[in-house]
Amino acid sequence: MIAVAAITGYLIMQSFPNLGTGLGLRTPHYSHILGTTPRIGWFEALSENYMDSGGRPRYILEQLAERYPVVLHGVSMSIGGTDALDFDYLRKLKALGKRVNARWFSDHLCWTGVMGRNTHDLLPLPYNAEVLRHVVERIRVVSDYLETSLVIENPSSYVEFAESTMTEWDFMVEMANQADCGLLLDVNNVYVSSFNHSFDPATYIDAIPAERIVQIHLAGHTNYGTHIIDTHTGHVIDEVWQLYGKLIERVGPKSTMVEWDADIPEFDVVLAEARKAEEVLAYA
Ligand SMILES: [Fe+2]
């Protein structure tokens, strides 16, 4: 990893490599991937699936890490929560990162529990100055502990808070600048939230500075007519591809991966989706 440099008293975010197009590592594909070593730039592994488990999952990830770059994506850091940061969790995460030479660590802009209870949901936050201060402070502590700039993903959401005084995209940009962290821009999440809360997704995408974007997520979702649920199933829809194309045209090539978590098809179906992203990146 490239060293963090100091400028005007603040640390600036380290630069992360463009790994090209990647895929999420999913259990049904383990054997296929290790048996065939498909041409793909990198894999994203869900941190919690490998932190505590020895045995086969850990072995598979270590094998994979010898052949591909790996990044770690978590769902339990609860960066927006009010419980104290869980340093036991962070210690295990850091150790796993070292073992598989994780290129970076990401988690979501959310809270996942309170008073020690994990809801296993990525719950949304109000966007205002008080929450911003809280989240920025915690990101800085975590980045310090992990010795690398943390990467934070925009959530998909279904409710908004009356206490919010700023848009999610303004919050994300301000948070990234103040905490000096990277962003994982999930274009599908932007689309899902824009549908659910009636805003223009292009306004959101256009507001995110290129230099903060470390990674991009694409995924399918389920449209129920009145609302969209971020189910990570099915193909990426045309509107999301269009937003992605517009984004890449503006910011240049960025590490991109496709998430497919429900009704997981054969590896080659997911790979074909990644190839579409590869085409977009190739023309950037
Ligand atoms: Fe995502």
Structure, described:
With 284 residues, the chain is an alpha/beta fold. It is built from ten helices and 14 strands. The protein has helices at 30-36, 48-51, 55-67, 87-99, 129-146, 168-179, 187-197, 201-207, 238-251, 267-282; strands at residues 5-7, 10-12, 21-24, 42-46, 70-73, 105-108, 111-114, 117-123, 151-153, 182-186, 213-219, 222-223, 228-229, 255-259. The strands form four sheets. Strands 3-4-5-6-9-10-11-14 form an eight-stranded parallel β-barrel, surrounded by four helices. Strands 1-2 form a two-stranded antiparallel ribbon. The chain has a two-stranded antiparallel sheet with strand order 7-8. Helix 5 packs across helix 6 (168-179). Residues 1-10 have low confidence and may be disordered. It binds fe (ii) ion. Fe (ii) ion (FE2) is lined by residues 153, 186, 189, 217, 259.
Mean pLDDT: 93
Radius of gyration: 18 Å
Alpha-carbon distance between the termini?
A: 25 Å
Which series of helices and strands comes N to C?
EEEHEHHEHEEEHEHEHHEEEHEH
SS elements, strand count = 14
Largest sheet: 8 strands, parallel, barrel
Strand order of the largest sheet: 3-4-5-6-9-10-11-14
Structural category: alpha/beta
Regions with pLDDT < 50 over 5+ consecutive residues?
1-10
Shape: globular
Strand content: 15-25%
Supply the number of helical segments.
10
Small molecules held by this entry: fe (ii) ion
Helix content: 40-55%
